[in-house]
Specification:
This protein is mainly α and 339 residues long. The protein folds into two domains: 165 residues, Cytochrome c-like domain (Cytochrome Bc1 Complex, Chain D, domain 2); 135 residues, Cytochrome Bc1 Complex, Chain D, domain 2. It has 14 helices and two strands. The longest helix is centred in the N-terminal third of the chain and has 17 residues.
Length: 339
């Protein structure tokens, strides 16, 4: 019986070695990704050692949605960055692979390519490095990038895509760069607000235009921080959400400067109607609650931004302001690989 199995085993091995001619002939592709920029958007920065190619973005998307990246398996990047929610989460604090709550609310990945610092405290300088943090965090994916690479690199589809995207097998280096490139393509800027800025006066209702005027007015001063194409200055401010920030002092975790306690990165307001709950800890459930907080000027924390000044709104003005914020929702998917 054992002897009779030997020819079968040899045949199986030979068949396995030759069953994937596509892999044997696969070569690095340099076809650029056809990135479509929203009207008025600048070209996002792309590192010289990670050109934005179609093959690298396709590989990155496959990895982004793969639940095998976590330990135990079942949690992908997309678990906490939900496509239909502008790649944000719907829970106050995201739940990781082991069922544990994370430290913060997962923000939208829209326009993350433009951000000079990643995470709400700006502690990671680029997207390639950012990929590592959730993978290794026991509260998030509880994984190890070397183990992920070892588990996935012999998958025939990953093997072909990795060689096509980066000219080598699926190494940790490839994984970080591919996911980063996919995230670079998640651009936001196709809202009715943008159509209005491009000269379509009917893109916003009269109520939404009133809300926009309030948003830009010196009395509310929202645009002091929520400015530019991304509707964020990407700076760090304490907006008085707490008197004691406890175990999450925000920017202070990075700088170790007590003057930075409670300061968090100013989020983009693009797609803000889709990204509830709000604030770094998901402590506010609705846009109305957020507006009411800013109207009070926030709690008197010593580091509270001087830009936080109380203001008064009538009921109709409050409704107009919220209506304007809802007009910032994209009218198309952020995922440019989706038809």
């Amino acid at each position: 019986m054992r002897r009779s199995l030997v020819p079968l085993l040899i045949a199986a091995l030979l068949s396995a070695c030759g069953r994937d001619p596509d892999l044997e002939t696969a070569t690095l592709s340099t076809v650029p990704f056809p990135l479509e920029l929203p009207p008025g958007a600048p070209m996002p920065p792309v590192p010289a050692d990670n050109p934005l190619t179609l093959a690298s973005v396709q590989l990155g998307r496959k990895l982004f949605f793969d639940p095998r990246l976590s330990r135990p398996e079942g949690t992908s990047c997309a678990t906490c960055h939900i496509t239909a929610r502008a790649f944000a989460d719907t829970t106050a604090k995201s739940v990781g692979a082991q069922g544990l709550k994370g430290m913060r609310n997962s923000p939208s990945l829209g326009n993350v390519a433009y951000h000079p610092g990643l995470f709400r405290d700006g502690g990671v300088p680029n997207l390639e490095l950012q990929v590592m943090a959730p993978l290794h965090d026991h509260l998030e994916m509880n994984s190890d990038i070397n183990a992920v690479s070892a588990a996935l690199r012999d998958d025939p589809e990953y093997a072909r895509m990795s060689i096509k995207g980066y000219g080598e097998p699926l190494t940790p280096w490839v994984i970080t760069r591919a996911i980063a490139n996919y995230e670079r393509t998640l651009l936001s800027g196709w809202s009715r607000y943008d159509r209005y800025l491009q000269g379509d006066p009917g893109a916003l209702t009269a109520q939404e235009q009133e809300g926009m005027q309030l948003f830009m007015s010196p009395a509310l001063n929202c645009s002091a921080c929520h400015s530019g194409f991304d509707l964020s200055d990407h700076g760090f401010h304490n907006v008085g959400t707490a008197l004691d920030y406890g175990s999450d002092p925000g920017r202070q975790r990075i700088t170790l400067d007590p003057a930075d306690e409670g300061k968090f990165k100013v989020p983009s307001l693009r797609n803000v109607a889709l990204t509830a709950p709000y604030m770094h800890d998901g402590g506010m459930s609705t846009l109305e609650e957020v507006v009411d907080h800013f109207a009070t000027g926030g709690l008197p924390h010593p580091n509270r931004s001087p830009l936080m000044q109380p203001f008064a709104l009538t009921a109709s003005q409050r409704e107009a302001l919220v209506a304007f914020l809802r007009s910032l929702t994209d009218e198309r998917s952020l995922d440019q690989l989706v038809p």
